[in-house]
Design brief:
Blueprint: E1 5-7, H1 17-20, H2 25-35, E2 51-52, H3 68-79, H4 93-104, E3 116-120, H5 121-133, E4 139-144, H6 148-157, E5 160-167, E6 173-174, H7 176-182, E7 187-193, H8 205-218, E8 221-225, E9 250-255, E10 267-273, H9 282-293, H10 300-312, H11 315-337, E11 342-343, E12 355-358, H12 369-380, E13 382-383, E14 385-386
Parallel strand pairs: 1-12, 1-14, 2-13, 4-5, 4-7, 7-8, 8-9
Antiparallel strand pairs: 3-10, 5-6, 9-10, 11-12
Length: 398
């Protein structure tokens, strides 16, 4: 796989506790890189090459390539000299139309340009979704394991985090009973990640339908993080949560980053899936527009390239990406079978990550997952992320 994670118990040694003080993945990756011994050499006396399996960046491997038509689309937009100025705060009109049409292919209704707002990657879309829902006393339901940025954004916005568990024995499905127990009148959203990061799961149509019904029953909306949308290579196809927009309002977050292999371009979207019109209430629309007036979106010429990128990328490129992900997942799981101390509770079916379980009883002088990851980095120059980083320790903003 292009990214890997280890999950075990949550005991933290003193020297490793520094790692958990920074909730971001980049923060702990920096600490792990710092722990690599510069003098660590292989048997021939040369320095070991660092193997980093901790960052969801497909460009770090030669296996995945950005299609030429995507690069040409950007070059054409830049060379036209029409897009050196500021873009509208909600995004270039042609980009919003193209994204609306692209997402509508998989929906039973048609999105409009007014439903789409362009963001600096999916990370900014996450922050926007939390900011839009923040109010005194609000709480948000987040998955555990989950992506740490959600909790950090909630902490900065003063939104209480309540965690519901994902169930590995059920393919990391949402514990819907826990959702119902956690939700109250101050719950502003239920967040899901599909395909899943860091678990590599893909939710079925039936399970997504149950999530929508549960959210409706408890009176909240769904934030659906689909940054890995369509990167499903198992038995279940990718189904966007927006399919159930008539059941419950959905905020869909996504980007070009993963599917088009361009994470550094930072071009994402924040989309309201709401055929019933809940988000069209004037005060809500005005609030969203005013908030985007505070933000700076991606470079204008990148936005201008979006229609050409979506229209000209051939299906064979997507198929090759899926084949590569499936192949690497198979290799990773097969190799893990030969490692006595590591167990994979669920073979990944999507995204670019997976969770594995560490059996401490088979290891000497290893206290927990953080200890394991730091010693693995130092001794073997292999970087993986401790599962604790995805188990959402409550943090306060700096």
């Amino acid at each position: 796989m292009e990214s890997g994670v280890v999950a075990v118990n949550n005991n933290i040694n003193n020297y490793e506790s520094k790692a958990t003080s920074t909730i971001t993945i980049k923060g702990i990756l920096s600490l792990l890189m710092e722990s690599i011994d510069d003098e660590n050499c292989d048997g021939g006396g040369s320095k070991k090459r660092v193997i980093s399996l901790g960052m969801g960046d497909p460009t770090l491997t030669t296996l995945f390539h950005t299609p030429k038509v995507v690069e040409e689309a950007v070059a054409d937009a830049l060379q036209s000299r029409k897009f050196h100025g500021y873009a509208p705060t909600a995004g270039l009109l042609q980009a919003r139309i193209a994204i609306a049409e692209y997402l509508s292919r998989d929906l039973p209704y048609q999105l409009s340009r007014d439903d789409v707002f362009i963001t600096c990657g999916c990370t900014q879309a996450i922050d926007v979704s939390v900011a839009m829902l923040a109010r005194p006393g609000a709480n948000i339901l987040l998955p555990r394991p989950g992506f740490p940025i959600y909790e950090l954004c909630a902490a900065f916005r003063g939104v209480e985090v309540r965690h519901y568990d994902l169930l590995p024995e059920k393919g990391w499905e949402v514990d819907l009973d826990a959702v119902e127990a956690l939700a109250d009148q101050n719950t502003v959203a239920l967040a899901i990640i599909n395909p899943g990061n860091p678990c590599g799961n893909v939710y079925s149509y039936h399970h997504l339908e149950k999530i929508a019904e549960t959210a409706k029953r408890v009176g909240t909306i769904v934030i659906s993080d689909e940054v890995y949308g369509h990167l499903a290579f198992g038995s279940k196809p990718f189904v966007p949560m927006g399919v159930f927009g008539s059941t419950v309002p959905v905020l869909t977050l996504g980007s070009l980053s993963k599917r088009w292999i361009v994470p550094g371009w930072r071009l994402g979207w924040f989309v309201t899936n709401d055929p019933s019109g809940t988000f069209r209430e004037p005060k809500v629309v005005e609030r969203i527009k005013k908030y985007f007036d505070l933000l700076g979106g991606p470079a204008t010429f990148l936005q201008a390239a979006v229609p050409q990128i979506i229209a000209n990328t051939e299906e064979i490129f997507f198929e090759k990406t899926i084949d590569n992900l499936r192949h690497t997942a198979d290799i990773c799981c097969k190799e893990i079978e030969d490692i006595p101390c590591i167990f994979c509770p669920y073979k990944p079916e999507g995204s670019m990550a997976m969770m594995v379980k560490l059996n401490l009883s088979l290891l000497e002088d290893i206290s927990d997952d953080i200890d394991f990851c730091f010693k693995l980095a130092k001794e073997e120059s292999v970087i993986i992320l401790p599962g604790l980083q995805f188990l959402s320790i409550q943090q306060k903003p700096c």
